[in-house]
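[audit] Reproducing an earlier prediction to check determinism. Same input, same settings, fresh worker. If the tokens differ from the archived copy the diff job will pick it up downstream; this log only records the rerun itself.
[audit] input (352 residues):
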Amino acid sequence: MSDPMTPAPALPSADARLAELSAWAATTLRTPDLTLAPASADASFRRYFRLTTGAASTLAPGQRTVIAMDAPPEKEDSRPFVRVAALLRAAGVHAPEVIKADLDRGFLLLTDLGDRTYLAELDVASAPALYSDAIDALILWQRASRDGELAPYDEPLLRRELDLFPDWYIAKHLGVALAPAQAQVLANAFRLVLDNNLAQPRVFVHRDYHSRNLMVSRPNPGVLDFQDAVHGPITYDLVSLLRDAYIVWGEERQIDWAARYWERARRAGLPVAPDFAAFWRDFEWMGVQRQLKVLGIFARLAHRDGKTGYLADMPRVMAYLRGACERYAALGPLLKLLDDLEGRRPAVGYTF
């Protein structure tokens, strides 16, 4: 999960990789006249810098800035980034072009999509047009889907993501050891959620399609942080967009935007459920998977990596999760478990 809104730390005075990246970029662009500044922070080991060139460089006329990505190869594999960028662009989605890549060293030069994130620009007035553009881009991406092109978003991967919740949110963040009955409740809920997720039609999935990874640009939106793309449930990216960990819209707006997506997706020939109520149920159950995963990821970022800023985003995610659990009787035991974990009421007995 990247965070284009959060400024990266100031450039360190002695950073061997940064010096190497700068020299490589100057040689690649054939210009010594180059300034470098942090462009964004990232939840991974990747770093991004905005390079501004002088008049003489190999960039296109009028193009004065590029983004340099530093992805240490022992920590990050940049090949998926390059591959998915090409898939997105081939689908007609505005993703950065890879100008040059040195995969052995983990250096990439990318076209600059600007610094105006959706999160910074969204308000009541701008939201309808911005979300409409994001939905159109999502449909372009999904229409380009092909079997065998991306790794499957299969049960092992979905389950590994779910396991982040007990491992990091419950055990590390809350410091709770589940009783056997509680662990069984969680296992039962995971099974129900996975059965729904795996039954959904499968398309290309960006996997983090939200307001911090969408840039206000021409054409709109610019799409970032796509290197973890997979082939999986059709509702996943719409959940990321409409149940965003960083900005909340009322349920009426969520339903309205979801219905607009559903109508456009049907016209585009995408395999959405023929009935909107069934599609909305799939959306909500996919959301439960994502929200459990995100709570685990945010806890891991805070407790393992020292990125405590993500703790402030947890209440939004938990509110989405609790809301879905309240609406579906089958998820009632999970809601009771959440109540117990949050200390909302005395521990209750579990039956299953």
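[audit] rerun output stored. Observation attached for the diff report: Residues 118-341 form a domain with the Aminoglycoside 3'-phosphotransferase; Chain: A, domain 2 fold (CATH 3.90.1200.10).
[audit] end
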